[in-house]
Amino acid sequence: MKRLSKFMMALTLVGAILAGCGSNNAATPQQEQPKTDSSAPAPADSNKPAEPAANEPVTAVGSTALQPLVEQAAKDFMSKNSGTQIQVQGGGSGTGLSQVASGAASIGNSDIFAEEKDGIPAQELVDHKVAVVGMAAVANPQVGVDNLTKEQLIGIFTGKITNWKEVGGADVKVTLVNRPKSSGTRAVFHQFALDGNEEAEGITEDSSGTVRKIISETPGAIGYLALSYLNESVKALKLDGVEANKDNIVTNKYPVWAYEHMYTKGEPAGTTKAFLDYIMGDEVQGKTVVETGFIPVTEMKVERDAQGNVTQK
Amino acid sequence: MNRQGSDGMTMIEKNVGRQQHRLARDKSYLQSKLLKPNKKQSLENFFGKAIAMSCAALLLIAVISIIYFIASKGLSTFFVNQVSIVDFLTGLKWDPEGEPALFGAFSFILGSFLVTVLAALVAAPLGIGAAIFMNEIYPTFGKKFVKPVIELLVGIPSVVYGYVGLTVLVPFIRERFEVLGFSLLAGGLVLALMILPTITSVATDAIEAVPQDMRNAARALGATRWQTIWHVVLHGALPGCLTAIVLGMARAFGEALAVQMVIGNTSKLPESIFDPISTLTSAITLNMGNTIQGTAYNNALWSLALLLLLMSLFFIMILRILGRKKLDNR
């Protein structure tokens, strides 16, 4: 009897410790699940997470592509506004969107529109487009090709063209380097470069650095990278004779680009709002955005919605 | 008692009484000292017990909640999203965001098994061979030099293995065999290197545990050193060596990062050992961050995790059975 009661005491103690950990750390997956479920039927609750007190830490979670820009901006913002706390974390666009939708994060960073992901209450989220990222089809320098028509590109990625000599290059086999099916970069490339045609199976890697390394070392390899990851070890291919650069992207002459989004649940307030305003300001848009390899969203001459419809600004 | 006078009697009685009284007091003091719980000690006892118990309880709770959590998420693929278990285990096409969504995980399962078996095939002879060298052939040099060197391999982070594999092994396979390079073979070799120290050290312990008498007896019967090693030492250490291999396989099965970097991650079925393939772990790590909690895609990844968990339970079961066998042999 006595031993049992002691054991129960130990159990309760541990239970209390566990419960304490759980409530402090909203990112614990166990904790997250019921929140996601309950967020939809309880809209009254929806404004709460977006309104932290002035000195409450702001968390920006999600896209690893956008992470360097947000990290740099957060660093500058914190040094200008002492007492503010902004934590930037990676985890992927899906993580960012689900965390902001559940209220676990103040800002969800994403490479894609929330509307494009199933299971996200997109109407509850407010989109802040902070930058534009261009993507290029990238090949090993030895393929002997520097321009592809869209038709050729689709042929290569769907597996119909299997040798570079079919598009006027060297006699090497084509090796595809894809992103995972759920990747935001793949979604953009799939929609705007391949016109929705299904990619053939190839090597799959998630990190841009690894993709670049594989393309640079594998003869006949082709993949796609954000413009900020280009260097001399790989060759960016022109699409229909149009080079992937800032001038062609701001006019949509080169169509393979995407917004980088920072979502908030409801309209932002407090530090969150101040931070987002700071990112949209000239200081970040004119300097940090360019330095981290993005295109300032303020310089875009066109606008694109979640369905891919482009309108002149 | 003598009756000399009332005074004397009382004196004696007094004395005796006092003595008895003191004795009784001392006894009761001792008794209380010995029988009554010491407050400090009992407090220490209690806290020690409580700490040890809460550690054990914490571990138990952690394990149970992890299993419950993974199972509840992983099973919802089948019960909430209505994916058939047979399709999941045997289907060849993995396209959870397609129309219609397809959840065929067979190529991942096959990949995990093939790469694990390949790693075990390469690492087991090497590890057991090294263990024999260290115990039977050159013990001083082996224990002083070879063992620490092999154990050093444990400390290398898996991302480093992956990066070395990507930089050295993949180009080597590509040039040597004129294939892509990212392949089952590359994954198996990287894993073999990773599980080598596990196999070696467990096999070393098993061989060490073979009684010296048995070796002496074999020698006395005229067996050569090689005959002793093969028929006596290895025979005696067989359950231990099997444990070593299963332990290594369990580690290989769960390894994610290093394999992901060199195996190519394609969901197509391989035609040869030089073709790329995907594993359960790489399918999870590549997609987990990009999927939304609660969607069928995310749940399907949890199902893959559940499958991994069941596999490691299976490996542990084998280890338990092997461990029992080892005891029976003695």
UniProtKB/TrEMBL annotation, chain A:
<dbReference type="InterPro" id="IPR024370">
    <property type="entry name" value="PBP_domain"/>
</dbReference>
<dbReference type="GO" id="GO:0006817">
    <property type="term" value="P:phosphate ion transport"/>
</dbReference>
<keyword id="KW-0564">Palmitate</keyword>
<keyword id="KW-0472">Membrane</keyword>
<protein>
    <recommendedName>
        <fullName>Phosphate-binding protein</fullName>
    </recommendedName>
</protein>
<dbReference type="InterPro" id="IPR050811">
    <property type="entry name" value="Phosphate_ABC_transporter"/>
</dbReference>
<feature type="compositionally biased region" description="Polar residues">
    <location>
        <begin position="25"/>
        <end position="39"/>
    </location>
</feature>
<comment type="similarity">
    <text>Belongs to the PstS family.</text>
</comment>
<feature type="region of interest" description="Disordered">
    <location>
        <begin position="25"/>
        <end position="57"/>
    </location>
</feature>
<dbReference type="Pfam" id="PF12849">
    <property type="entry name" value="PBP_like_2"/>
</dbReference>
<dbReference type="GO" id="GO:0005886">
    <property type="term" value="C:plasma membrane"/>
</dbReference>
<dbReference type="GO" id="GO:0042301">
    <property type="term" value="F:phosphate ion binding"/>
</dbReference>
<feature type="domain" description="PBP">
    <location>
        <begin position="49"/>
        <end position="283"/>
    </location>
</feature>
<comment type="function">
    <text>Part of the ABC transporter complex PstSACB involved in phosphate import.</text>
</comment>
<keyword id="KW-0813">Transport</keyword>
<dbReference type="InterPro" id="IPR011862">
    <property type="entry name" value="Phos-bd"/>
</dbReference>
<keyword id="KW-0732">Signal</keyword>
<comment type="function">
    <text>Involved in the system for phosphate transport across the cytoplasmic membrane.</text>
</comment>
<keyword id="KW-1003">Cell membrane</keyword>
<keyword id="KW-0592">Phosphate transport</keyword>
<comment type="subunit">
    <text>The complex is composed of two ATP-binding proteins (PstB), two transmembrane proteins (PstC and PstA) and a solute-binding protein (PstS).</text>
</comment>
<keyword id="KW-0449">Lipoprotein</keyword>
Automatic annotation (TrEMBL), chain B:
<feature type="transmembrane region" description="Helical">
    <location>
        <begin position="300"/>
        <end position="322"/>
    </location>
</feature>
<protein>
    <recommendedName>
        <fullName>Phosphate transport system permease protein</fullName>
    </recommendedName>
</protein>
<dbReference type="Pfam" id="PF00528">
    <property type="entry name" value="BPD_transp_1"/>
</dbReference>
<feature type="domain" description="ABC transmembrane type-1">
    <location>
        <begin position="109"/>
        <end position="319"/>
    </location>
</feature>
<feature type="transmembrane region" description="Helical">
    <location>
        <begin position="101"/>
        <end position="128"/>
    </location>
</feature>
<keyword id="KW-0813">Transport</keyword>
<keyword id="KW-0592">Phosphate transport</keyword>
<keyword id="KW-0812">Transmembrane</keyword>
<dbReference type="GO" id="GO:0005886">
    <property type="term" value="C:plasma membrane"/>
</dbReference>
<dbReference type="InterPro" id="IPR035906">
    <property type="entry name" value="MetI-like_sf"/>
</dbReference>
<dbReference type="GO" id="GO:0005315">
    <property type="term" value="F:phosphate transmembrane transporter activity"/>
</dbReference>
<dbReference type="InterPro" id="IPR051124">
    <property type="entry name" value="Phosphate_Transport_Permease"/>
</dbReference>
<dbReference type="InterPro" id="IPR011864">
    <property type="entry name" value="Phosphate_PstC"/>
</dbReference>
<feature type="transmembrane region" description="Helical">
    <location>
        <begin position="46"/>
        <end position="71"/>
    </location>
</feature>
<dbReference type="InterPro" id="IPR000515">
    <property type="entry name" value="MetI-like"/>
</dbReference>
<keyword id="KW-1133">Transmembrane helix</keyword>
<feature type="transmembrane region" description="Helical">
    <location>
        <begin position="228"/>
        <end position="250"/>
    </location>
</feature>
<dbReference type="GO" id="GO:0006817">
    <property type="term" value="P:phosphate ion transport"/>
</dbReference>
<feature type="transmembrane region" description="Helical">
    <location>
        <begin position="179"/>
        <end position="207"/>
    </location>
</feature>
<keyword id="KW-0472">Membrane</keyword>
<comment type="function">
    <text>Part of the binding-protein-dependent transport system for phosphate; probably responsible for the translocation of the substrate across the membrane.</text>
</comment>
<feature type="transmembrane region" description="Helical">
    <location>
        <begin position="149"/>
        <end position="173"/>
    </location>
</feature>
